[in-house]
Amino acid sequence: MGFADADLAAIWLTLRLATVTTLLLLLIGTPIAWWLARTRSWLKAPLGAVVALPLVLPPTVLGFYLLVAMGPHGPVGQLTQALGLGLLPFTFWGLVVASVFYSMPFVVQPLQNAFEAIGDRPLEAAATLRASPLDTFFSVVLPLARPGFLTASILGFAHTVGEFGVVLMIGGNIPDETRVVSVQIYDHVEALEYAQAHWLSASMVLFSFLVLLALYQFNPTRPRK
Amino acid sequence: MDNPAIQARFRLAFPAFTLDVDLSLPGRGVTALFGHSGSGKTTLLRCIAGLEKVPGGFLRMGDETWQEGEAFLPTHRRPLGYVFQEASLFPHLTVKRNLEYGLKRVAASARKVSLEHAVELLGIAHLLDRLPERLSGGEKQRVAIARALAVSPRILLMDEPLAALDLARKREILPYLERLHDELDIPVLYVSHAPDEVAHLADHIVVLDQGRAVAAGPLTDILARLDLPIKLGEDTGVVLDATVAERDEHWHLTRVDFDGGHFWARDAGHAVGQRVRVRVLARDVSIALQHSFNTSILNALPATVEAIADESHPALALLRLRVGASPLVARITRRSVQALELTPGKVVFAQVKAVALVG
């Protein structure tokens, strides 16, 4: 006994979702984290709180609002319809959008911490060495924040793999489109297919352990000089 | 390109004091921005570098305006070199790539200081492949200075580059700074609170106190002033330019001639004909009315008393003397001032117990 085709499809879909979400989050989260790390604006606290909301909100709440927003009468839904993209709920890309929101804090916060730890001095030194702010970001900030990017990628990926509530709200349960591993396990249990559920669940446990192991291995909290 | 003169006008309020300066600085040599901590000297340097943006500030560097009204040239477009108090090397780059970081961002046509020259000047050729974390504090700071030089700056700004180092490391770096002074024609603004460093390196000095420039001018003139608002205590004294004239190998003494006479000093290995600076501390200068031959003191110079002022301790007074064209400052007791009937204009002998050859 092993994985059925439906299980493999769910695993593949999950990995695809997590990969796309993580890449998008690195693109979107980096400027947000940079802004949060550098700004002295009063907006820092409110925006930081908004980014952190998914940490405390029940996934169903987040899913509900996203569903409404992306639905036929929601602002996002009307926009996607106007652009000829149709409606996002119950599609793969709908899941991607939801996952980006859901996993945002897991990417932004490690990046923000890494950026803050760099401090002003390397940026000032780079400026006195003729590097423009953008040049400085790529030649100094990115290399110095590499451990932060690694942490952010791993956490963003793993957290997306572990989604359940948001997926059910936004994506439902459509094979090859929105039926990710966590939903597939739920289906197996509903159908009393415990052996199948065991295989997938044990895989998730192993996967999560390996991810965290990698995290602690690559990012040891050794004292830095 | 000729050496630019610098005009700087900044006003910036802090909780503790207000930086309020309007300076015209020479475009050559080393100018020390000297003052106690909290006097605003580092802030002034950061304003000049553009690291602090002061609304309403004005900064002209030779024929270029760096700041005026709304116009503000960002730091990375100012042709300057900056050395921070902590070396601030990029930890992810080797020494060589730290040095190249600024160099490769400067147009080839604007490069005047080669990497090899900077490396040789600071004596860091053996460190090139190391990462900064494997350097000592003194080595890091030498690399930081070379890195700033490698951008061929039109002006070098140094913010207490020795302050974070212990005495041995300071002694290690001072000779390199003296070489820069002697061999490179780059004007330097050097922030320091250490009179000793200033005596070694500076040609000009701006004395800052509570955010204001309270004195500015050639080092010799300013150090000879008795009315400086900040007290130097044991470090009170003058710095004179001199030339090595004679070496007495038997007694290990060196004779240096200055504008007004000569001093005998301990031989420090300088060659005859070499230009040196002589530092004469006020506490090492005593006064006699006649030339005394029954004394251990080698240096007795005819001098005219120019001014007398109170020293911070009530027992002491400071005298400004004129020896030929050069000033000296003597610190003696007020009792002696009265006993010897010293008044401005009186001709005396200045007995100088010790002089130090610096730089």
Protein model, in words:
The complex is a heterodimer of chains A (225) and B (359). Chain A is mostly helical and 225 residues long. Chain A has eleven helices and no strands. Chain A has a single domain, classed as MetI-like (MetI-like fold, Orthogonal Bundle), CATH 1.10.3720.10. Chain A is 76% helix and 0% strand. Chain A starts with a helix and ends in a 7-residue tail after the last helix. In chain B, helix 4 runs parallel beside helix 5. Chain B is globular, with a radius of gyration of 22 Å. Chain B starts with 5 loop residues before the first strand and ends with a strand. The model of chain B has no long low-confidence stretch (mean pLDDT 90). At the A-B interface, helix 6 and helix 7 of A face strand 7 of B.
Compact overview of the structure:
The complex is a heterodimer of chains A (225) and B (359). Chain A is an all-alpha fold and 225 residues long. Chain A has helices spanning 5-38, 44-56, 59-70, 75-82, 92-118, 121-128, 133-144, 146-161, 165-170, 181-190, 194-218.
Secondary structure layout plus pairing:
The complex is a heterodimer of chains A (225) and B (359).
Chain A: H1 5-38, H2 44-56, H3 59-70, H4 75-82, H5 92-118, H6 121-128, H7 133-144, H8 146-161, H9 165-170, H10 181-190, H11 194-218
Helix pairs in contact in A: 1-5, 1-8, 2-5, 3-5, 5-8, 6-7, 8-11, 10-11
Chain B: E1 6-13, E2 18-25, E3 30-34, H1 41-49, E4 58-61, E5 64-68, E6 71-72, E7 80-83, H2 95-103, H3 115-122, H4 137-149, E8 155-159, H5 167-183, E9 188-192, H6 195-201, E10 204-209, E11 212-218, H7 219-223, E12 237-248, E13 253-258, E14 261-266, E15 275-281, E16 285-288, E17 299-310, E18 316-323, E19 326-333, H8 334-339, E20 347-352, E21 356-358
Parallel strand pairs in B: 3-9, 3-10, 7-8, 8-9
Antiparallel strand pairs in B: 1-2, 1-4, 4-5, 5-6, 10-11, 12-13, 12-15, 13-14, 15-21, 16-20, 17-18, 17-20, 18-19
